[in-house]
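Before going further, learn to read the protein records used in this course. Taken together, the tokens spell out the fold as the letters spell out the chain. A record is reproduced here so that you can trace the correspondence yourselves:

***
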Amino acid sequence: MKDFTANSLPFPRGLEWFYKNKVKGDPFYDEIFRAEKQYEETQQELIKDLLAIGIKIRSVYDLVNEREKSYSEAIPILLMHLDKEYDKRIIEGIVRALKVKEAKKLNIGIDLFLKSYRKGIDENDYSLMDASSQAIKMFAKKGDSDKIASILQLDAKIPEGAKKAIRKEILATFNKLGGQK
């Protein structure tokens, strides 16, 4: 069993203890706690699938924050879950967890990352667009320039603050592959 839960960033005694004993009844913290519980519940299927192959996590970000242990056996499960309908934070975590050299060796295409990039645009989420554009750059190969060109055309939908950095990343990948724009 590989335990990645040391990478979790919980409150010292746990989020529930903190909530029940320190801030319960405060509308601000009530909303944060509700959102965090929903976030935890949403990724239970992913957590269970990883546990079934001997990888213990509390959140997909436990893998993102890992610098020492390999989790190559988790990559097929992460790819399967990337294609599911999750909250954008979980999708971003899966994308970031897949940006490892072990995944690069598997010759993963960019289609799922293009999908997550589009989700970032649709939900106006710079962080998801950024993670996805980095993954597209990492996994793109010859022959992908047409797919990348299709997302370059989405410029009008990208928020102004994110447009320059994101476009630069995607355009650099497009040009690296010999694309003509």
Observations:
- Residues 29 and 98 are 32 Å apart (CA to CA).
- Residues 1-107 form one domain.
